[in-house]
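glycerophosphodiester phosphodiesterase structure dump, as promised
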Amino acid sequence: HAAYLATRGLDVVDAVSNALIKSGYDKETKQQVFIQSEDPPVLSAFKKFPKFNRVFEIEFDIRDVSKPSVVEIKEFANAVKLRRSSAAQVDGFYLTGFNAVVERLRDADIQVHVGVLKNEFMSLAFDYWADPMVEIATDTWSVLADGLVTEFPSTAAAYFRSPCSDIKRNMSYTIKPGEPGALVDMAAYGALPPAPPPAPVLEPADVHRQPLPLCPTEPMFRTFRCRLPPKETGKNAEYTANLAADG
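C-alpha cells r here:
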C-alpha cells in the first residue's frame, strides 16, 4: 500500500530500502531477497538493488497474459506471483486443467511463484486428496512453478526434503501430482456447479505504472484530531474530534 501511505506522509519504499541497507541485505550473497508488490512503481524503485528479486503480485485471477503485458512486466520485475486459481483451473473443487499463463511467463524468462498455499482441506481441490503435499507436487511438477508462497513452510520443507518428492527417481512410492479431469469424469451428473466465466487475459492496461505520489510535508491526519477545510473564505478552520471509543 505504498501509494496510499505516501499520501499520508509515510514513504514506505524509502523506509524498507534503508532498513535493508542497514541490515546488509544489499550485499547479501548467501540468501535471496524478494521484494513483492502489486505496484509497479514500487518495484521500479528497487531496481537500484540489482541483486534483489522483484516480484509483481497479480491479485486477481487470469488465464493468460498478452505479449505486450509481458514486455511491460519485464521493465520492472523479474518474477510474478500468481493466485493458485490462476495457475490451476479448479471448477467446483475438481481440478480441470492448467492455464497457459505460467508457461507464457516462463518462456519470457520471468519466474512464476504460486500462492498462497494452505493446509486446510477446505482449500484443497478433491484431486489433491485433502493432502497439501499433493498440491505442492502438482505446482512443482505439473504447473512448473519456480517458487511457492505458503502459510505452512514446514509442510513444504518436509515435502522437498523427502526422497518421495522426486518423481524421476522411480521409487516404490512417490508423491504424485494431481491429474486434471481424473475425478470430474467420475462425478455424478449435476454434481458440478455451473461453469464460471473464463478468467480474463492480462493486458497492459491492467499493469498500472502511475508514479507514486510524493509524501506531503504536512501530514494529512492527526492522532486525536483531524483538520477540515473551512466552509467559507475568511473563517477559521473547523476541527472535529477523532477519539477512539473504549468499550
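The chain has two domains: 1-60, 62-202.
lmk if u need the other ones
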